[in-house]
């Protein structure tokens, strides 16, 4: 809000004298302030329409979410906490069912689904494109209720807004893609003047023939060189990959529990594990794995982002825990 106001004051200061009515104010600074106020209200009104009436941010968030590969494949963080918890709970239920002689087909199918889910990677396009279809097929086979819930279709207003956001997103992408060509053309037109100063006309330009020579011998080689360098950077060196790894490694919540995990996930998991532990004792089942997991979670829950030593302890604790259900569901 303050930034918008300051920006409008700057615009008012520079443009009030060119607009009738505002240039007639005395003292002149008053015209600048009035113009700034009008512009401020215009932009504020546009923001109100965008936020309250049109609500384009809704579709914008949908687009950003759908373009995020980690909406379809597991985030690195999931391997640290959700992965062992889900499989421990599934394994616990399966042991109970097996002990009681109950059918474990649905549990086995769920374990297979999660096994394939945690095997997905963001660099495999097929994993991204098939994720939703596989999930819908699984939920149709195992619905929460007997009657299938019909997936609602968005209204025409929502589809129009989402389509507009897609077009804007694509336009931005095209602009970024063509920006490189525009930059090398500008580069050539600038340096052709530097290389041939004697050919510069009185207007500061050069002949069309000389400009074409600049495009041919400066722009095109530079463009090709940058394209090859970009390909080598992206496909061969993959420098972006270590960059993402560093960002994750520098995030303290990659190792210690987030507030959401402490306030929501762990209390539920703690209750379930305690419930299963008591049930295992009554059924005469081995509780060693459950005790190991409960101990792991108790230590994990006490880790904090403010202690650097907790990061190393979390990594060591996770490593000492060992492999997690590597072949579960394959038998």
Rough outline = elongated
> What fraction, in percent, of the residue positions are helical?
over 70%
Overall number of strands: 0
Q: How many domain regions? A: 3
Q: Ranges with pLDDT <50 over ≥5 residues?
A: 326-331
Total helix count? 12
Structural class from helices and strands? Answer: mainly alpha
Terminus-to-terminus distance? 61 Å
Rg from Cα: 31 Å
What is the chain-wise order of helices and strands? HHHHHHHHHHHH
DSSP strand content: under 5%
Major beta sheet, specifics? none
The whole-number mean of residue pLDDT values reads: 76
Walkthrough of the structure:
Helices cover 71% and strands 0% of the residues. The protein is mainly α and 331 residues long. It has 3 domains: 2-54, no CATH class; 74-119 and 251-321, no CATH class; 156-248, no CATH class. Helix 4 packs parallel to helix 10.
